[in-house]
Each structure stands twice: as structure tokens, then as C-alpha cells.
Amino acid sequence: MSLWELYGNKLLIAVGVHLLYVFASVAIGFVVALTLGILLSRVPGIAKYALPIISVFQTIPGVVFIGILFLYMGMVPATAIIALAIYAVFPILKNTYAGLLSVDSSLLEAARGCGMSRIQSLFEVELPLAMPSIIGGLRMSTVYTVSWAVLASMIGLGGLGEFIYIGIATNNNSLILAGAIPAGIMAISLSFVIDFVKFRITRQGKEVNLK
User: Fold this and answer.
1) More confident residue, 92 or 65
2) Each residue of 129-156: pLDDT tens digit?
3) What SS3 state is found at 159?
4) 3-class DSSP state of 117
5) Binning pLDDT at 50, 70 and 90, where does residue 210 land?
6) In this structure, what are the phi and psi dihedrals at residue 151, rounded to the nearest 5 degrees?
């Protein structure tokens, strides 16, 4: 029997679970990172200390972090999603902060001259101009999260990592590939989708500027 005949249904379920972890954690990470990035861009003096502290979470091995959460939360999907969301935050946060700070001050002055409030300036000028940088961070975070989500299987929460770890434990290369190849395709596909969104947003921004 072929590998697909043996594990086809389980593989489809694993892909679905893996995608769920990626989408849920990146969505949470995006909201948190965008909020923190906006707040920190208003206080650069604090940001230069806060960003290195936040980046420390990136240095903690995923196995250790998800293991600690498992001890407190147990074997529930929220354990994996929270751990992955925390890892997803920093690339988006860093790019959001950098993108907002890179907005030309003359444009901000022009916005104030047009009578815009700070909130209006943020949503109508700063965020649109910083969006290519923000989406770049989102792309990075998403690709990383696809690989980090493999760790969910270490605490019995499924995903493509289940095939990889069972394959390693049983010295079965076919199982390893059954988990690794879909994960690689997923990362590349999501990267292309986000690149396309970034291209569309950048193009629309240029068209608006030309008008």
C-alpha cells in the first residue's frame, strides 16, 4: 500500500490542524504586535529598551516555552496557539515600529495642516505608508510560524509535526517527508499570498500618491 492509502486521511487532518494553529496564532500575534508597535512608535525613548526585552522571547527554545505552557494549561489547542502567537509577535512588531518611524515628518505636518487629528493621521497617513513594512513582518512571522507549529505535536496536539516526529522515532523517511513536504509547501504558498497582498497595497499606495 502507498503512503497516501495508509495515511491520506490523517495527513489531511494534520494539514488542517497545522493551518489552524498558523492562522490563529498569527492573527493574534498581528493584533498584539500592531497595537504595541503603534504605542511604542509614540515613545521611542521607551521603545529602545522595550524592544530588546520583548525580543528575548525569540531566544527561548520553542520546546522549552511550549513545555512550560503545557505544565500550566495542559494538552489543549490554546497551549500551542498562545505559544506560537508569542513567537509571532516580534517580527511584526519590529516592522510595524520601523515602518511608522520611517514615515516622512513633512507628511505628518501636512496632515496636521489639513486639520487631521492624531488618530486620523495614524489611520489615514501613517499606517497606509507603513503597511508594506508591516506586511513584510507578517510574511516573516507566518513563514516562521509554519515551522514552529511542528512543535505542537510534541505535546500531543497534532499537526504535521506528528508525522515528522514519528518518522524520526521509527527511522521512517517516508513519514518524515509526509510531514515536511506539506509544511514546506504551506510556508511557500502563504509567503506568495502575502507577497501578492503587499504588492497590491504598495501599488495602490503609489497610484494614490500619483493622483
Assistant:
1) 92
2) 889 899 999 999 999 999 889 888 888 8
3) coil
4) coil
5) very low
6) -65, -20
- The crossing angle, in degrees rounded to 10, of helices 127-148 and 77-101 is 150
Domains of the chain: 3-210 (1.10.3720.10)
Q: How far apart are CA 55 and CA 52, in angstroms?
A: 5
How is 97-116 classified by DSSP, letter by letter? Answer: HHHHHTS-HHHHHHHHHTT-
CB-neighbour burial class of residue 187 (10 A; exposed 0-12, middle 13-18, buried 19+): middle
Residue 110 has pLDDT above 80, yes or no: yes
Would the CA dihedral through 63, 66, 71, 76 be positive or negative? negative
Cell matching residue 197: 497582498
Q: Which residues contact 22 (CB under 8 A, 6 or more apart)?
A: 84, 142, 145, 146, 149, 186, 190
Q: How many other C-beta atoms are found inside a 10 Å radius of the C-beta of residue 61?
A: 9
In angstroms, the CA 122 to CA 108 distance is 9
Query: Residue 155 has what DSSP assignment?
Result: G
State pTM to two decimals: 0.86
Instruction: State the chain's mean pLDDT as an integer.
Output: 85
CA-based radius of gyration for the chain? 20
